Amino acid sequence: MRYLLAVIDSQSGSATGDEIAAIDEFNDALRANGQWVIAVGIADPSHATVIDNRLNAGVVVAGPLHDLDDYMAGLWIIDVDSHDTALALAQWGSRACNRRLEMRPLL
């Protein structure tokens, strides 16, 4: 079962040195346990572009879909055997990066 762990923040690239070390430790554990799929940081919404080409509309709008104070600033995709394992890893990831996480199963 694969899960998305979305890092919620109000600023991209804001991790401190201690947070980066804790994130690296978390990432190393995911790799060692075969649970790692990918982890990335994401640029802040000011770098977003919204594209809507339904029915060949050709709409391209610079800027984010939603204007919110908090947004997805990074993510992990993990591969685990159960929802409970994903939840435990999400709790560890939240502690490591010192941010809230939103966890969702991938379909």
Write the layout of secondary structure elements.
Blueprint: E1 2-9, H1 17-32, E2 36-41, E3 49-52, E4 59-62, E5 71-79, H2 83-97, E6 100-105
Antiparallel strand pairs: 1-5, 1-6, 2-5, 3-4
Helix pairs in contact: 1-2
Architecture overview:
By secondary structure, this protein is of the alpha+beta class. Helix content is 29%, strand content 35%. It is built from two helices and six strands, in the order E-H-E-E-E-E-H-E. The strands form two sheets. The chain has a four-stranded antiparallel β-sheet with strand order 2-5-1-6, with helices on one face. A two-stranded antiparallel ribbon has the order 3-4. A hairpin with a 6-residue loop joins strand 3 (49-52) and strand 4 (59-62). The chain starts with a strand and ends with a strand.
